[in-house]
Design goal:
It is found in: Peroxisome. Its main location: other. The chain has about 280 residues and is of the alpha/beta class. It folds into two domains: about 220 residues, 2-enoyl-CoA Hydratase, Chain A, domain 1 (Alpha-Beta Complex), CATH 3.90.226; about 50 residues, Lyase 2-enoyl-coa Hydratase, Chain  A, domain 2 (Orthogonal Bundle), CATH 1.10.12. The protein contains twelve helices and ten strands. The strands form two sheets. Strands 1-2-3-4-5-7-10 form a seven-stranded mixed β-sheet, with helices on both faces. Helix 5 packs across helix 6, helix 6 packs antiparallel against helix 7 and helix 10 packs antiparallel against helix 11. The two termini are about 15 Å apart.
């Protein structure tokens, strides 16, 4: 599988593994409307993840940036932040719709049925944090410089960081520290607070680790893996009792899969399991 979208490269470096690269390195992979708010929808970013989500040939995904940086966020020079209309209420509705469309686009990697492993490297500013927060696992290179940058351009981060980041790291004090100041923080600090789960020496090493993890996941039952992501994501904002009840309902169907017998048989027979496409 190899496909090139406008500013995205999608390849398959391992069986059932997709590698998505944000591909605008000459602008440090900065995003603008063509990525996000194209009409008719979906946007290019959402289109990539929606396609991979439904592909039976994909079981796990790695997301990184082409070149030295993941992304510096929005390309201010090419992004139109003006909205039509002179009436305040009507302009507010236009802004609200625009932000909702933007949020929906970036949420595509969270809603993707397949696990998404994000490799953060170089500059990872603004929208980079929004994107990373939607992914399932985050790995960083040692040189990564992070920033929740939005207050420096006069607005509150509105694409998901302020809603997702507190749940990821579990420290409201630290989230407010970085979001209110827009200060740059290091990969070491990101690891310490739990924003990333691993730091590798450089981008190549981080991508290598992500691909190894993606390949390991891709060798598991796709029914089990996709069920696990769905149940964990659903349970995050609910009580334990609600999560248990949801798991009962989900597994009432999922446990009927033949993958259980194949997985157990492979372990007992000391062979590699083979699972049908999903």
């Amino acid at each position: 599988m190899s496909r090139t979208y406008n500013h995205f490269n999608v390849t398959s470096p391992e069986p059932y593994v997709a590698h998505v690269e944000i591909n605008r390195p000459e602008r440090l992979n900065a995003f603008y409307q063509e990525y996000l708010l194209t009409s008719p929808p979906p946007s290019k970013y959402a289109q990539v993840f929606n396609t991979l989500s439904h592909s039976p040939d994909v079981r796990s995904i790695v997301l990184s940036g082409a070149g030295p940086s993941f992304t510096v966020g929005l390309d201010i020079q090419k992004t139109n932040l003006a909205f039509p209309g002179s009436d305040g209420a009507r302009k507010a509705w236009e802004i609200k719709r625009g932000v909702a469309e933007f949020q929906e686009c970036i949420s595509a990697s969270e809603k993707c049925e397949k696990p998404v492993i994000c490799v953060l490297h170089g500059f990872s500013f603004g929208l980079a944090i929004d994107i990373a927060c939607t992914t399932d696992v985050r790995i960083s290179s040692a040189d990564t410089r992070f920033s929740v940058k939005e207050v420096d351009v006069g607005l509150a981060a509105d694409i998901g960081t302020l809603s997702r980041l507190p749940k990821i790291v579990g420290s409201l004090s630290w989230v407010k520290d970085v979001a209110l100041s827009a200060r740059i923080f290091s990969a070491e600090e990101a690891l310490r607070v739990g924003f990333v789960s691993a730091v590798e020496s450089d981008k190549d090493a981080a991508v290598k680790r992500a691909l190894e993890m993606a390949s390991l996941i891709a060798g598991k039952s796709p029914v089990a893996v996709q069920s696990t992501k769905a149940i964990v994501n659903w349970s995050v904002d609910r009580t334990v009792a609600d999560g248990l009840a949801y798991t009962q309902a989900w597994n009432a169907a999922a446990l009927q899969t033949g993958d259980v017998g194949e997985a157990v048989g492979a372990m007992l027979g000391k062979r590699k399991a083979r699972f049908e496409k999903l």
